[in-house]
Each structure stands twice: as C-alpha cells, then as structure tokens.
Amino acid sequence: MSSAQPVSAPSSAPIACDIFCAVIDNFGDIGVCWRLARQLAHEHGWQVRVFVDDLHAFQKLCPALAPDRARQTLDGIVIEHWREPAHAGETLEVADVVIEAFACELPPVYITAMAGRERAPLWLNLEYLSAEDWVADFHLRLSPHPRYALSKTFFFPGLGPGTGGVLKERHLDAARAAFESSPAARAEWWLKATGQTPPPASATVVSLFAYENPAVESLLAQWRDGAAPVVLLVPEGRISGALARFFGLPSFAAGTRAERGNLTAHALAFTEQTGYDALLWASDINFVRGEDSFVRAQWAAKPFVWHIYPQADDAHLPKLDAALAHYTRTLPAAARHALERFWHAWNGVGQPDWAQFQRHYPMLKQRAAEWAVELARVGDLAGNLTSFAKSQLK
Ligand code: TRH
C-alpha cells in the first residue's frame, strides 16, 4: 500500500472532502472511489473521508481494511461504513467538497446539514465513464436542489476534450517504465504470481479479467490449437468457471496451472488494487472489464479488449462503439476492423477471430502507445476535479 506524501501541500487548511459510494456489484464502484480518494489525499493534500456501504467488496481491493469496523483510517484516509441510507457518520461535519459517486443518493440528514452550512459545500455527482460525445456537453452542468439553496454539479469522466478525463496517478508512467525496463522486476512478478519463471519471448502473454462470456470457449480453443504459444493469466473471478469447464477441472482457483496444446493457463489470486497494474504490464494483451480496469489497460499502453458492463436493451453497445471510435481513430482500416470485430465478438456480437486480431498486433501495439499519450492530454480526473474545486471554493 503506498503512503506517498502530498506533493503539493495546499497553502491554507487542507480541503476536506467526503466521498459517498454505494457498491452496486463487482468492484468498479469502490475501485474508482478508492483510487480517487488516494489521489486526492496523496497528490493534492486533501483531507478525505470515504463512506462506503460494502466493506467486504472494498477489502478485496484493499486487504488491510477491517470489514467489521464502523470507522478506520487507512493510508491517511478515513473510511466510514455507510450502514444505512440515513447514516452520515458520528458527526455532521460537512466537508468543503462532497462527492456523490454514481448518483448513489446522499443521506437526507447530510443534505440538510449541507444546506445549513455557513458556506455551501461544492457538491459533485461523479458519473460513470462514457466515451460518448454528449458527455462533454453535460460535464459541469448544474442541477439545483428542489428545496434547498444547493446545486449539484455533474462531473463526467470521459476520453475526449471537454470531459473530466480519467484517473491517472502522477507516478504511474514512471512505475510502468521501471517495471518494463527491469528483467529482475519481471522475474520477481512471475515467480510471485505463478510460481514460474517468465515465459519465452515467443509466447503471447494474455491477461483475462472478464464477466461470464459465451465467446470464451471458442477463444480458448483457438489458443489451444493456434500456431504460437499463448500464456494466459486469469485472476480468480467470474470467468474462472469457464476455464475450469474447458480444462475439465473442478475449479480454476488461484495457483492452478493447466495446459492444452499451445495454451498454458495460470489462475492468479485477486491482488490488492495497487498490484493490478503489474499484471497489465507483464502481459502483451489485456482483457479488461467495467470501468477501472478498462482505464488501467489504456495507461498500460498495450492492445486490450474491453468487456463492457452489460446493460438492459444493449444500451452498452453505443458506449462500446464510442470508445472504439476514440481508440481506433488513427488506425488503418484493416487493423481498425479487426479490432472492432474482436471487441464486438467479445461483447456478444459475432465470433472472436484470434488469428485476424494477432495479424494486426504490431499496429495495435503502436496505436495503444499513441492513444495513451492522446488520452493523457485530456488530463487526469483527480487533477481536473481539484482545479475545478479550487475555482469554485475561491
Ligand atoms: O468489477 P467491475 O466489473 O466493476 C464495475 C461494476 O460492475 C460497477 O457496478 C459498474 O458500474 C462498473 O464496473 C462500470 O470492473 P472494474 O471497474 O474494472 O473494477 C475492478 C477493480 O478491481 C479495479 O479497480 C481493478 C481491481 N482489481 C484488483 O484490485 N485486483 C485484481 O486482481 C483484479 C483483477 C482487479
């Protein structure tokens, strides 16, 4: 767990910030909130408190957390177990900046206290990430409260100019460069994650973090029967059952290693959040899902395949295409189509064609590196959020 010191100490008292997070499912809600909390505290010197309703999901990302404690401090951040919708901590000290993550609805008692505060806090609704064009128009729009003299500002993450951007720690590129340039770091990572030495350069290393996916069986078979070796790294989770079925095993729990034809697969333990990036750096291609791992794959600057969070009525498909439009913008048509087809197949439309995807690998790799530079121009979300907050709190 990092314990970085604030790099830019604020000139006066630190800005106090409360983040409210309701875990809908999986790890993305708390994953995004915890990453943001750490950046606000460690990079911007804010005094952060996180209210979260599911400490068990949180503990998976942050094993140092005690899931039975109502209040604790970790990494300089106060964590409150948000036990019921009305709960708002022992005291009603309203922060300067209040972040309502993903429209989770603040406790009514807290909103009343916000309205009663001598100076109204800055109230931000942090939205889910979408790459769609409308996001830039809605970013920073205000929504006045129907009863109180309070307004909520919509803060939209995004992949394009005029949006809030996505989270990126200041140290991230340096950490990646250090890992990638150190054979010792790589060897140490492989030993810890798989108990093995790193595979030879002739193997394609693939990390696989996904929801249950009907396309996985076909893909596993293509890897098994392919001309070149594939080494698959699978953190324990929702896709593990499909791996077990494919290999005829009772389970595919952490520590399992299985081999068929040209495919070797390792089941990995789910690591704490700060350890996840190294898995992306150690791989040639990353399968990611949801929101936070999708962003991390972009910063890893390797070709990746996104399993988007499925929504009713296929509402997620335009979002998938909007992300593809950004990511593939400068790719030649053949490589762009191969990537589009593969992403679509991985999200239920068509069949994945690994050989076609692989053919364009060098081009996709180059684009992944360029895209990471382009995306960084939108600015880091925590930095964009703190600049906005400072402009409002002046
Ligand atoms: O877990 P996700 O699917 O999360 C979500 C939720 O479903 C949420 O409700 C939805 O709205 C959102 O997606 C869009 O995927 P995500 O966002 O990638 O979060 C996973 C987190 O888990 C991320 O912070 C990385 C972390 N992680 C680890 O800490 N260790 C690991 O070993 C792995 C594989 C992931």
TrEMBL record:
Keyword Transferase: yes
Superkingdom, taxonomy of origin: Bacteria
InterPro entries on file: EarP
Keyword set, alphabetical order: Glycosyltransferase, Transferase
Reaction catalyzed: dTDP-beta-L-rhamnose + L-arginyl-[protein] = N(omega)-(alpha-L-rhamnosyl)-L-arginyl-[protein] + dTDP + H(+)
Coiled coil: none
Pfam families to which the protein is assigned, alphabetical: EarP (PF10093)
Gene Ontology MF annotations: protein-arginine rhamnosyltransferase activity
Keyword Oxidoreductase: no
Record family assignment: Belongs to the glycosyltransferase 104 family.
Role this protein plays: Protein-arginine rhamnosyltransferase that catalyzes the transfer of a single rhamnose to elongation factor P (EF-P) on 'Lys-32', a modification required for EF-P-dependent rescue of polyproline stalled ribosomes.
Protein name in UniProt: Protein-arginine rhamnosyltransferase
Source species of the chain: Paraburkholderia susongensis
